[in-house]
Amino acid sequence: MQARVISSSSSSGGGGGGGACATTYEHGAHLTGWKASFDGDKDAVDVIFTSGSAIFKPPKAIRGGIPVCWPQFANYGPLELQHGFARNCAWKVTDEKEGSIEYTLTYDDIDDQQKAMVPGPFTLKIRHVVVDGTRMRTYMSVTNESEKEFNLDNDQEFQKTRTTDHSTIRR
Predict the structure, then answer these.
(1) Largest alpha-carbon pair distance within the chain?
(2) Closest to 149 (Cα-Cα) out of 125, 126, 124, 122
(3) Residue among 58, 64, 2, 56 at smallest CA distance from 32
(4) Tens of pLDDT, residues 121-141
(5) Sheet containing strand 30-36, strands side by side
(6) Is the pLDDT score of 163 beyond 50?
(7) Closest CA to 171 of 135, 120, 133, 125
(8) What distance in Å separates the CA atoms of residue 110 and residue 33, rounded to the nearest whole number?
(9) Rounded to two decimals, what is the model's pTM?
(10) Which long-range contacts (CB under 8 A, 24 or more apart) does 23-26 make?
C-alpha cells in the first residue's frame, strides 16, 4: 500500500509553522496521520496517527487514524459487519490538488457480498483537506443512485437517541 501525503502551501504560514500535512491511503480512504504546527513551531507534531503496530495489509482495515465507517458505525444498524465495509475497500482517487485529496467508492467497486448489504447503487465520497498549519478537515458525502430509499440505522435504541434522521438517503 502506498501512502499519499497532502499539504497546503498555507501550512507554512498564517495558521502555523511549516511541515503540516496529512497521510492517506486508497485502502479505505483512510486518513492515517495529521501533523500540525502550533504557535509558530518549526516542526509539525503528530495530532492524528496510527500505532506503530498497525497492520497495513488489505483487505484488513487499518487501525487508528480516521476510518470511514459506512454504511453503519459499530453495530448501530442492520449489518452484522461492525463499522460496515467501506474501510475494507479499495477506493479511487478522483481529485487531488494542493492540500486536498478526494476518494470515491461506488456500487460498481464493491463485491457481491457487500452489494447485498445496501439497497442499491450509491456513490460515496471522502475529501481530506489540510487547511493550514493548524487545521484539517474531512468531508463525507453519499449519493443514492437508486430509486429505493436507504435507511441505514435500523437499530431501535439508536433511533430513539437521534433528533434528526441524517442516515436516510433519498434520491
Answers:
(1) 52
(2) 122
(3) 64
(4) 999 999 999 988 889 999 999
(5) 3-6, 21-25, 30-36, 45-48
(6) no
(7) 120
(8) 26
(9) 0.81
(10) 24/101, 24/103, 24/128, 25/1, 25/56, 25/62, 26/1, 26/2, 26/90, 26/91, 26/92, 26/93, 26/103
Nearest to 34 by CA among 126, 134, 139: 134
The region, left, alpha or beta by phi > 0 then psi within -120 to 50, assigned to residue 16 is: left
144 contact partners, CB below 8 Å, separation of at least 6: 120, 121, 122, 150, 169, 170, 171
Residue 85 neighbours by CB under 8 Å, 6+ apart: 70, 71, 110, 114, 117
Rounded Cα distance between 71 and 11, Å, is 33
Distance, in Å, from the CA atom of 140 to the CA atom of 169, rounded to the nearest integer, reads 13
Cα torsion 35, 37, 38, 43: sign: positive
**What are the grid coordinates assigned to 7, written together?**
499539504
Q: For residue 155, what is the DSSP state?
A: -
Q: Judge contact between 26 and 128, C-beta under 8 A.
A: no
Span 69-90, pLDDT tens digits: 988 887 766 677 778 899 999 9
